[in-house]
Design a protein that fits this description.
Elements: H1 4-13, H2 17-21, E1 29-35, H3 57-65, E2 67-69, E3 72-73, H4 79-88, H5 92-95, H6 111-117, E4 121-127, E5 139-143, E6 153-156, E7 159-162, H7 167-182, E8 189-194, H8 233-236, H9 273-276, H10 281-301, H11 305-340, E9 347-353, H12 372-375, E10 379-382, E11 391-393, E12 397-398, H13 402-409, H14 424-427, E13 439-443, E14 455-459, E15 463-467, E16 475-479, H15 497-513, H16 525-531
Parallel strand pairs: 1-8, 1-9, 2-11, 3-12, 4-5, 4-8
Antiparallel strand pairs: 2-10, 6-7, 9-10, 13-14, 14-15, 15-16
The chain binds calcium ion (CA).
């Protein structure tokens, strides 16, 4: 706020006053486009083995117009907690939402409430994943829990409604409708458009079913990782494409051998049918028309071993990237809408996703770990007149910083109990001399689906140290310069003894700095034994 008079004087001095005089408030609007489980390496503007597929031309255009954050990380790699960190500007242990089983306390201080106080109009559409009625929003329509891809329900201030169509398109429609018809034009806005896509179970829009049909997706270099160098947790997880990805539930393979009919006899428990039964007859026809013949080919081929893993990877990666395509189109629609409304010059557009994801990397799907693929979050920010087009920032940033950033953009005060740092100086190309030299991570959801143990850790621009504390002395240490794929755990390598000691010291310091008082005690041997029973392979 306090910068406005100076800005207006400059604008008048430069003869720009007429362009701004139509609006009572020249602070920037903020469009926050947020997706679920979209790994940076599934974005063309980032580096990675999927780049050659050109998976996201529209998000890439946003990067070409703005700033891409290369070293962008979450604090806790899972859906709800990441969102709670963004709302509060605080680590999980401070905002109280440590794992997806928690309920978010909406009564606490959140940045949308502070933006409202500062005169912003706020709205959220799509996936909230924080349970309870969203607070701090002038309008909202959110999916219950994970939400559905086809013909989903939405929770609204007026109660539950069902909206026909494909979720990514519907959420975009809601955001466009608010921009064009519902918002108060006298106020700047913060619009959070939060897609379910590309979250499991990966269901593309009918129009994207045959995308990538005629090509093979390149395989990640670590698809057949054996976790030989890791601490034990990597060998006891349950997120392998090989052993834990379900042919029917995850990949929608019809098990009834009636390939062109609706799969009415699919298993009723952990079944693809649970996610398909909402389809209209037309949607079902398109779906089965595409997958039916492919399922028949799959059954006829009778694959096993690495061939089966490769086949599962292809269907998984294609469906994931088809969901990403829907998101990419949504980004284009939103930017076009801003342009049509004359809002593009004064609207900050942000693209981010709640964490990264394994797209076959290390043989996995899902997230949770502090390894790079799920620790990283995409972050692209275009702020017309502020961010240098096509710029890349390599400072260490986290979702912990978003609330502070939005508040500074709005000229509002940043509360002293928020734990992150505003990215505004970085966006201006002016990184402070004393920017953070390490980020802190803490994952809690265990024992739980996928069986990734609790761990905390620290990452600098070169090294990473992780501790699976409930199992005692189970540590990993990586030199990311020498080993960006994290295939050589150097924790016990004498060559790195000094660096490991230094990182351990830093880890204790950063835990104190963020005041993490979570219970990190080692568990009894009996418990450890129970947790490490070998997991059976699911029935195909
Ligand atoms: Ca997620």
């Amino acid at each position: 706020m306090k910068l406005r008079p100076l800005f207006l004087i400059l604008a008048v001095g430069l003869g720009l006053a007429p362009a701004f005089s139509a609006s009572a408030d020249d602070r920037p609007n903020i469009l926050f486009i947020f997706t679920d489980d979209h790994a940076p390496h599934a974005i063309g503007a980032y580096e990675g083995w999927l780049k050659s597929l050109n998976p996201t031309p529209e998000i890439d255009k946003l990067a070409a117009d703005g700033m891409l954050f290369v070293n962008s990380f979450c604090t806790n790699s899972i859906c709800g907690p990441s969102r709670a960190v963004i709302q509060s500007g605080k680590h999980s242990h401070k905002n109280g939402f440590r794992d997806n089983g928690n309920k978010f306390d909406w009564d606490q201080q959140t940045f949308p409430k502070l933006l409202q106080k500062a005169g912003y109009q706020t709205a959220i559409y799509g996936k909230s994943h924080l349970d309870g009625k969203p607070q701090g929003f002038d309008d909202w329509k959110v999916l219950p829990g994970q939400g559905l891809y086809y013909n989903p329900d939405f929770l609204t201030p007026e109660g539950k409604v069902t909206i026909q169509g494909y979720c990514t398109d519907i959420v975009t429609d809601l955001a466009v409708e608010w921009l064009t018809k519902k918002r108060d034009e006298s106020k700047p806005f913060m619009l959070m458009m939060q897609h379910k896509a590309p979250h499991r179970n990966w269901m593309p829009a009918p129009r994207h079913l045959s995308l990538y049909d005629d090509i093979d997706i390149p395989e990640p270099p670590t698809l057949f990782d054996k976790y030989e160098d890791n601490a034990p947790p990597a060998r006891f997880q349950e997120l392998e494409i090989d052993r834990h990805m379900d042919i029917n539930y995850d990949l929608f393979v019809d098990l009834t051998a009636d390939y062109n009919q609706p799969p009415s006899q699919m298993r009723q428990d952990r079944s693809a049918w649970n996610n398909m039964k909402r389809m209209t007859p037309e949607q079902m026809e398109a779906w089965r028309g595409y997958y039916g013949p492919k399922d028949k080919e799959f059954h006829d081929a009778n694959l096993s071993g690495q061939d089966l893993v490769r086949w599962k990877f292809q269907r998984y990666a294609k469906n994931y990237l088809r969901c990403v395509k829907g998101v990419d189109e949504s980004v284009a629609r939103m930017r076009e809408t801003l342009k049509n409304l004359g809002l593009d010059k004064n609207t900050v557009v942000i693209y981010s996703s709640d964490q990264g994801f394994y797209i076959g990397d290390h043989g996995w799907f899902d997230k949770r770990w502090m390894y790079e693929e799920s620790l990283k979050m995409p972050l692209i920010i275009s702020w017309p007149g502020v961010t240098k087009p096509g710029s890349k920032n390599t400072d260490l940033v986290q979702n912990l910083d978003y609330a502070e950033t939005f508040l500074e953009m709005a000229g509002a005060e940043i509360p002293s109990d928020m734990q992150g740092l505003s990215l505004v100086p970085l966006l201006k190309g002016e990184t402070p001399a004393k920017w953070r030299d390490a980020i802190y991570y803490h994952y809690y959801e265990y024992p739980s689906v996928h069986m990734v143990p609790r761990h905390y850790g620290i990452r600098t621009d070169r090294f990473k140290l992780m501790h699976f504390y409930q199992f005692g002395e189970e540590w990993e240490f990586y030199d990311l310069d020498a080993d960006p794929g994290e295939l050589m755990n150097q924790y016990n390598n004498p060559y790195y003894a000094d660096e490991v000691a230094e990182m351990k010291k830093k880890l204790e310091e950063i835990r104190k700095f963020y005041d993490d008082d979570s219970d990190v005690s080692e568990m009894p041997d009996e418990w450890k034994k129970e947790m490490r029973k070998p997991s059976p392979k699911p029935e195909a």
